[in-house]
Specification:
Elements (H helix, E strand, L loop, with lengths): L2 E10 L5 H18 L2 E7 L2 E8 L1 H13 L3 E12 L10 E4 L2 H9 L19 H12 L6
Parallel strand pairs: 2-5
Antiparallel strand pairs: 1-3, 1-4, 2-3
Helix pairs in contact: 3-4
C-alpha cells in the first residue's frame, strides 16, 4: 500500500481556548480513525505544527478538511509526498504542547528526505525535520495525549 505524509505549520485563530482545542482533537481523531490516518499535532501559544500520514486519498481528504478549517490561517506546507513507512502508527492524532523553540526548529528544518549519496535513488532515511519530530516525540511521551 502506498503512503503519503504532510507536515505544515499554521497560526490559530485569535482567542482559541483549551475547550476548542479539545473539540478539534476529538473531531480529528474520529475522522482519522475512519480514514486510517495517523499523526501528531503540536501547539504553542497560537501556533500549530502538524504531521500526518496515510493512504494518498485519505491524506488528501484530511488535508482538504484542514485547509478549510476556520480554526487557523496562514498554512505553510513543509512537505507533502510519498513515504516508505508510518512513523506514528499508534497515534490517530497525538497531541502535546511544545515550546516555541521546538516549533521554530521544526518549521525551519529540511523536510525533503536526503538523497542516497551514491546513486541519487529514492531515500530510505528520514528527513531532518522528521528526525527532529521523532526525537521530540520520544523525549516527551509522558506529556502527550
Amino acid at each position: 500500500m502506498s503512503l503519503e505524509a504532510v507536515a505544515y505549520t499554521s497560526s490559530a485563530i485569535h482567542g482559541i481556548t483549551d475547550d476548542s482545542l479539545e473539540i478539534l482533537l476529538l473531531g480529528a481523531r474520529k475522522k482519522n480513525e475512519e480514514l486510517g490516518v495517523t499523526g501528531v499535532l503540536l501547539y504553542h501559544d497560537g501556533s500549530f505544527f502538524q504531521y500526518f500520514e496515510g493512504s494518498p486519498n485519505a491524506v488528501e481528504e484530511v488535508y482538504d478538511r484542514i485547509r478549510r478549517s476556520p480554526m487557523h490561517h496562514g498554512i505553510v506546507e513543509l512537505v507533502e509526498g510519498p513515504i516508505d513507512h508510518r512513523s506514528f502508527s499508534n497515534w490517530l492524532m497525538g497531541f502535546t504542547r511544545a515550546p516555541a523553540t521546538k516549533l521554530l526548529q521544526l518549521s525551519n528544518a529540511s523536510w525533503k528526505a536526503r538523497m542516497a549519496q551514491a546513486n541519487f535513488t529514492a531515500p530510505t532515511v528520514n528527513s531532518d525535520g522528521l528526525d527532529l519530530l521523532l526525537q521530540f516525540w520520544a523525549s516527551n511521551r509522558r506529556r502527550m495525549y
